[in-house]
Design goal:
Elements lengths: L2 H4 L1 H16 L1 E2 L9 H7 L10 E2 L2 E2 L5 H18 L3 E3 L5 H12 L5 E5 L15 H4 L2 E5 L9 H11 L3 E4 L10 H11 L2 E5 L4 H4 L13 E5 L10 E5 L2 H15 L5 H14 L2 H23 L3 E2 L8 E5 L7 H10 L2 E2 L1 E3 L13 E5 L1 H5 L4 H16 L4 H16 L10
Parallel strand pairs: 1-13, 5-6, 5-7, 7-8, 8-9
Antiparallel strand pairs: 2-3, 4-10, 9-10, 11-12, 12-15, 14-15
Helix pairs in contact: 3-11, 4-11, 5-10, 7-8, 12-15, 15-16
Bound molecules: D-serine.
């Protein structure tokens, strides 16, 4: 029986979500549109299979084909990141990070990560996450210019003496200097862990500095700039670390791996390894750069003055409206972004004084600088007149027509 006949409630909501994704301009920096063929394997028979363990060492029978699938995913992941070992089983980036901590740390050990309100991630030691509950967490941040000051990170590391330094961010528009982080880690005898979830698609295309050979361990999600299925991965070059990572993921924190998603990761990696991937990654950067330039020309401040990657942070510290106001006004104009704290933040994390805008998803739809220039102009038009809802409605009509010229999916179920 087809979904539309069996469960109209869910079917109709899926189609509403399809229309929302197609008609709005998706600019949340952590989102993307994965490939139809990735969604095809995620909806496949693989969802039925239990395969606790790793290829060749499973706790269940009937794993001969999923063994081959997981091995292909592992081999492609290693080739993509140029590393010796990969674990493709983490169900998410958060679980990948939890797995890394479990492999390298004991409860109560000190970690030093980037402050959430400065662009870090919950799993980098936030007190409300298990990373901040199970380990003693300390933080570095950005200066008022929006950039990491590596000398200051070194000073903090020297005082804290962490067992692990976490680098990588969720809202940092500048390149991360993994070499400098490694020097800091070495100076205090810490492991260096990079979470490249946001920038992975750029890293593997040579469009951002590479975390290897500087980092002891690297995690990522596969669904952000990598454009694959929703999930996590962990990479390392040391066999001893790889063994610990494998046991930390299974049986440490996960049971049966999601084989349909692991197959999706393999298919996604095949895209990431193709020559076209470099073209996509370059375009992601060119598009957001153009958008940032237009916003600056219209008088808006970008944190750090610009971007080296796939996102910009627009600061409203000098305006009488908040990140939340901007997020809602842009939503009414058909542009989806998220409110974000900015350096020197004076408002609460629920209100904020900024927005984070990313280019990965619209670039996947085929948009280029010309479209990003128009979108940036309309973003500025909305922000300049933030209380004008009828203007926002008109802009929404214009942008919906633009979005419909860049069709990404013609059905909700693959
Ligand atoms: N939620 C993701 C982001 O928006 O950056 C990180 O997990």
């Amino acid at each position: 029986m087809e979904l539309k006949d069996f469960d109209k409630d869910i079917y109709e909501l899926l189609n509403k979500e399809l229309a929302r994704q197609c008609d709005h301009l998706e600019m949340i920096a952590s989102e993307n549109f994965t490939y139809p063929e990735v969604m095809e394997v995620m909806g496949s028979v693989l969802t039925n299979k239990y395969a606790e363990g790793y290829p060749g060492k499973r706790y269940y029978g009937g794993c001969e084909f999923v063994d081959e699938i997981e091995q292909i995913a592992i081999d492609r992941c290693k080739e993509l990141f140029g590393c010796a070992f990969a674990n493709v089983q983490p169900n998410s980036g958060s679980q990948a990070n939890q797995g890394v901590y479990g492999a390298f740390l004991n409860p109560g050990d000190k970690i030093l990560g980037m402050d959430l309100s400065h662009g870090g991630h919950l799993t980098h030691g936030s007190k409300v996450s298990s990373s901040g509950k199970n380990y003693e967490s300390f933080f570095y941040g950005v200066e008022l210019d929006g950039r990491i000051n590596y000398e200051r990170v070194a000073d903090i590391a020297n005082i804290v003496k962490p067992k692990m330094i976490v680098c990588g961010a969720s809202a940092y528009p500048r390149e991360i200097d993994f070499k400098k982080f490694r020097e800091i880690a070495d100076s205090v005898g810490a492991y260096l862990f990079a979470d490249v979830a946001h920038i992975a698609g750029l890293v593997v295309a040579g469009e951002h500095a590479h975390p290897f050979p500087h980092c002891h361990v690297v995690s990522s999600t596969t669904h952000k700039t990598l454009r694959g299925p929703r999930g996590g991965i962990i990479m390392t070059n040391e066999e001893e670390f790889a063994k610990k990572i494998n046991s930390s993921i299974f049986p440490g924190i996960q049971g049966g791996p999601l084989m349909h998603v692991i197959a999706g990761k393999a298919v996604g990696f095949k895209h990431n390894l193709s020559p076209e991937w470099k073209v996509y990654a370059k375009q992601v950067k060119a598009n957001i750069k153009r958008l940032g330039e237009v916003l600056v020309s219209r008088g808006y401040n970008l944190v750090s003055g610009g971007t080296d990657n796939h996102l910009v942070l627009v600061s409203f510290l000098d305006r009488d409206f908040s990140g939340k106001d901007a997020d809602m006004a842009l939503g009414r104009a058909g542009i989806t972004v998220n409110k974000n704290t900015v350096p020197g933040e004076k408002r609460s994390p629920f209100i904020t004084s900024g927005i984070r805008v990313g280019s990965a998803a619209l670039t996947a739809r085929g948009m280029k600088e010309e479209q990003f220039e128009l979108i940036a102009t309309r973003i500025a038009d909305v922000l300049d007149d933030i209380g004008n809802e009828s203007k926002q409605a008109k802009i929404k009509d214009e942008l919906t027509a633009l979005a419909r010229n860049f069709i990404i999916y013609n059905k909700a179920v693959f």
